[in-house]
């Protein structure tokens, strides 16, 4: 789901959210009212509990309307509708691939946002596994699918966008190194999507601090891998393998990480994958205290951090980011 319509004119109010026409399934009952913007005002187009028909869609196309709106209050009903129909949307040849990527990304973002607000609600954790499965089916379509996801990736840092980025990058890197087993990819993807869930317990003033953290604040921040693992143990839904990236994504190959300072011998292969993409995403997204770095300078910087990352994974991740990368000569 995209951000709230900003109040730029008297005809746009902040109480509506734009959605894609392509996200609505034909002949399926809507769980929410659908509105259109006439140029002057927002008016009701299709009431909830009615199916969205071919006729309703044709009328929109006829009038060149691609963006429709739902009320802010019905965003949860929309989220539920999309999650239920996501596999159909992703398999629909009539929906453009870039739109599929946008719908997948927005749906994942909205779910992680909910999850961070209510991390011990087991239904949210279960939903995140379904979403990871849809993400895997999408990514397994090939490199174009990955590139589409890259195009719509948000480079503004929020824990929820970061979590979605880390999930898609992790699945793509796993595929790049030849992991094709569906269960393994689901376990890795789930751990990657939930890797920072422990940040829901870090006080906001530390999480959003505009300057670097002092020693005591950093000590609190360093607890988030353990907190994340504890939160997920409470719901007891994810597989044992999914806990590793949550607990170990800040550990380093040479033992210089946290919380335990274990080295490569005790790091799970999934943790090594998430460790690489977590740092990459943090470097390449805009933070309150630090501007975003471009892809290749970020990778170069990581190649320079001797002993921190698994060398093969870092090399393969560099290859994944583009054949044109100068770092492919490494
Ligand atoms: Fe983290
Ligand atoms: Fe992270």
Structural description of this entry:
The protein folds into 2 domains: about 15-95, no CATH class; about 95-330, Orthogonal Bundle (Hypothetical protein af1432), CATH 1.10.3210.10. The two termini are about 40 Å apart. The protein has helices spanning about 55-60, 75-90, 95-115, 120-140, 145-150, 160-175, 180-195, 205, 215-220, 225-235, 240-250, 270-285, 295-305, 310-320, and strands spanning about 15-20, 30, 35, 40-45, 50, 65-70. It has a two-stranded antiparallel ribbon with strand order 1-6. It has a two-stranded antiparallel sheet with strand order 2-5. The chain has a two-stranded antiparallel ribbon with strand order 3-4. With about 325 residues, the protein is mostly helical. It contains 14 helices and 6 strands. It is globular. The chain binds fe (ii) ion (2 copies).
List keywords for this structure.
single chain; 330 residues; mainly alpha; Hypothetical protein af1432; two-stranded antiparallel sheet; two-stranded antiparallel ribbon; 6 strands; 52% helix; 7% strand; disordered N terminus; binds fe (ii) ion
Quick structural overview:
The protein has helices at residues 54-62, 75-91, 97-117, 122-139, 143-152, 159-176, 182-193, 204-207, 215-221, 224-235, 240-248, 269-284, 295-304, 311-320, and strands spanning 16-20, 28-29, 34-37, 42-46, 51-52, 67-71.
